[in-house]
Design a protein that fits this description.
Helices cover 18% and strands 45% of the residues. The chain is built from three helices and eight strands. Strands 1, 2, 3, 4, 5, 6, 7 and 8 form an eight-stranded antiparallel sheet that branches. Strand 1 and strand 2 (30-35) form a beta hairpin.
C-alpha cells in the first residue's frame, strides 16, 4: 500500500468541497448523488454527513446499507473510492455532534427537526487513483 495512505487520502478528502455518495436502489442499481463534504471524519474509516430523513437516499440505506463514497481532485486528476456501510442515525447525540450554526437553512426546526438525520459511513476497502495508476486497499 502507498506510503502514508491515511494522510495522503485524508488530505485529498479535506480539500474537496463536494462528496459523491452512492446507494443501491430497490432494483439493485447504484444511485449516486453529490453532497456537501463530511462534517466529521476519523481517518479514512468513518465519515459523518447531514441529510434529510425524508430523502430517497435515507430510504435506500435503510433497505440496503451497502454504500460507496468518492472524492476527487480535478486539478491533479486523482481520487479515492471507499466502499462500506452507511448507517442512518437519528439519535440526539449524533445529531448534536455534527450540527453547525446556520443549519436551520436546511432544517428549520433546528437540531431536533425530525427531517434532520446523520449518515455515518464506515469504510471497509478502497481504491486510490493517482499518477496514471490505481491501487486497491483494505481499511482496518
Amino acid at each position: 500500500m502507498m506510503r502514508d495512505a491515511v494522510q495522503t487520502i485524508g488530505n485529498l478528502i479535506d480539500k474537496q468541497s463536494v462528496s459523491l455518495i452512492s446507494s443501491v436502489d430497490i432494483d439493485g442499481f447504484p444511485n449516486t448523488k453529490a453532497m456537501l463534504p463530511p462534517r466529521k471524519r476519523e481517518g479514512i474509516k468513518s465519515f459523518w454527513f447531514t441529510t434529510n430523513t425524508s430523502s430517497m437516499r435515507v430510504a435506500q440505506y435503510q433497505d440496503d446499507p451497502k454504500a460507496c463514497i468518492y472524492f476527487f481532485d480535478k486539478r491533479f486528476f486523482r481520487g479515492v473510492m471507499l466502499k462500506g456501510i452507511m448507517e442512518v442515525l437519528e439519535d440526539a447525540a449524533s445529531k448534536e455532534m455534527i450540527w453547525q450554526e446556520g443549519d436551520t437553512i436546511y432544517y428549520a426546526k433546528g437540531v431536533t427537526d425530525p427531517d434532520y438525520c446523520v449518515l455515518k459511513f464506515t469504510a471497509q476497502s478502497g481504491r486510490y487513483y493517482a499518477n496514471f495508476r490505481s491501487e486497491d486497499f483494505d481499511i482496518e
